[in-house]
Amino acid sequence: MISLIRRLTCGAALLLALSVPAAAQTPAFDFDQLRDETAQRLSEYLRINSSNPPGNELATARWLKEVLAKEGIEGQILDTAELGPGRANFYARLKGNGSGKAIALVHHMDVVPVSRELWSVDPFAGVIKDGYVWGRGALDMKGHGIMQLMTLIAIKRSGMPLSRDLVFIGNADEELAGLGSRVFVERHRDLLADVEYVLTEGGDVRVENGKTRWFGLGVGEKQVYWQKLVVKGKASHGSVPTADNPVPHLARVLTRIAAWETPIRLTPAVDRFFKAQAQAEAGQHRRWLQDAAAALRSPKGRAWLLSEPERNALLRNTISPTVLVGSNKTNTIPAEASAELDIRLLPDQGTLSFRRELLRVIADTSVTLSLIGDIPRRFSAPLDTELARAIERTASRLVPGVPFATAVGTGASDRPYYASAGITCYGIDPYLVELEEGRRGFHGNDERLSIENLAFGLRLYAGVLQEMQGSGKTVSGER
Ligand SMILES: [Zn+2]
Predict the structure, then answer these.
(1) Cβ contacts of residue 448 below 8 Å, gap of 6+?
(2) Distance 200 CA to ligand 1 centre (A)
(3) Which of 42, 172, 184, 301 gets the highest tally of CB atoms within 10 A of its CB?
(4) Would you say 419 and 197 are in contact if contact means Cβ atoms under 8 Å apart?
(5) What whole-number distance in Å separates Cα of residue 252 and Cα of residue 247?
């Protein structure tokens, strides 16, 4: 597959840019006006407290419906019974002429809870100051959802002819169990039947000291494969030790698991991701990232690549033992001891073969191993599609000279649910946020998004969606 990966030279990019229809080259939007309106809308959206738990996405869905109704776009509030009191999914569609397949813009309407005392502003007041919109969800991901919403509205207002329908979806419960997208995908296959692509969160844009190092399109993510280990023993008094104490038994098993060095495997997406990262490095480090396959064959290169935890996690299946339960009394030997393992598999890893390997390492048939939660769904998108190319071209116009990366996420998103419906999913971060700022704001305190970044995201979405309209005649089976 790697030979198919397109690595555009400037000349090739220009040629491709010229080959898209003229309409795509001249956005009809007043971006300054749109940016300011978007900031106001985001401020309103942030004022609806959709902290999960409990979520309260019925309120956000109602608000979205109202905003779109003013533009003549009819939205639907869905799945209220299935999701429980105060909860909902939201769906709307801007119709095109039907000649191409649809593109769905998907965001989650819930946010993570706040520690109010650690914020310098009210996290649910939608404060606009110092060039930023402040509030829980500004980055994750109401800000992103509003960029999608306002791009859709701007396209509707412009009267731009659409070959592909544009679908707008707001899901509940991404931050806890992913129930919203799961229910949506299960119950509304009809609404998704003609959807070719989903665009949602989960890109990877690295900005350090004002310099954008790479712009990453999220093409895959690790599979969540949590396991519980149980060791049985015999309950007795701690004053008389026996060989049936399950606690040291479990400890020995965990020691073997912790010492297991899972095999290293370089997937095409991660290889390309590292190549983009290489351009921010110099000397040997640059060479190692440029050709990770070769670097992994040399002891020094391999040690350096694996020394960075994030890179290590992209090169192998990982296991973190986390929860441990034995006795709750010092003088009591428990009847059983258990541990939970946070296992994350590479996007293309089969679960059965991994389980076999894990059992081999455990090497103890008295240990029981059981899956926590659902059977993991896979999400690994092709690197070379029309949408991926449109995003690459648009990003290269907006941030010229910045390497375009294919990012694989170590965390989980809603994308596997949509991917399970046969849709090609991608993640983007439609803003250029400094690494430190992002780390502080994402699930942290004083989350905020600059108005300048709203303008960036609007230009990115508008550019991509316009390009895709120029070429919506999809041959079935292309995917
Ligand atoms: Zn999110």
Answers:
(1) 132, 133, 134, 135, 138, 139, 441
(2) 9
(3) 172
(4) no
(5) 9
Ligand 1: distance of its center to the CA of 215 in Å?
18
Measured in Å, residue 205 CA sits from the centre of ligand 1 at 15
pLDDT tens-digit readout, 415-425: 999 999 999 99
CB 466 within 8 A of CB 24: yes
DSSP bridge partners of 86: none
Query: Is the Cβ–Cβ distance between 90 and 59 less than 8 Å?
Result: no
Q: What's the sign of the alpha-carbon dihedral 194, 200, 204, 210?
A: positive
Q: Beta partners for 409?
A: 221
Task: Tell how far the Cα of 22 is from the centroid of ligand 1, in angstroms.
Answer: 35
Predicted TM-score of the model (pTM): 0.86
Task: Name the token pair of 320.
Answer: 């973190």
Helix 299-307, helix 283-290: angle, nearest 10: 90
Residues within 5 Å of ion ligand 1, judged at the Cβ atom:
140-141, 201
- Contact call for residues 441 and 133 (beta carbons, < 8 A): no
Whether residue 349 contacts residue 356, with contact meaning beta carbons closer than 8 Å, is answered with no
Handedness of CA 109, 341, 293, 378 (dihedral sign): negative
Q: 11: CA distance to ligand 1 center in Å?
A: 36
CA of 55 to the centre of ligand 1 (A): 13
Q: Report the separation in Å between the CA atom of 94 and the middle of ligand 1, taken as the mean of its atom positions.
A: 24
**Model confidence over 425-479: pLDDT tens digits?**
999 999 999 998 888 778 889 999 999 999 999 999 999 999 998 754 433 333 3
CA 110 to ligand 1 center in whole angstroms: 8
CB 372 within 8 A of CB 351: no
Q: Which residues pair with 223 in a beta bridge?
A: 345
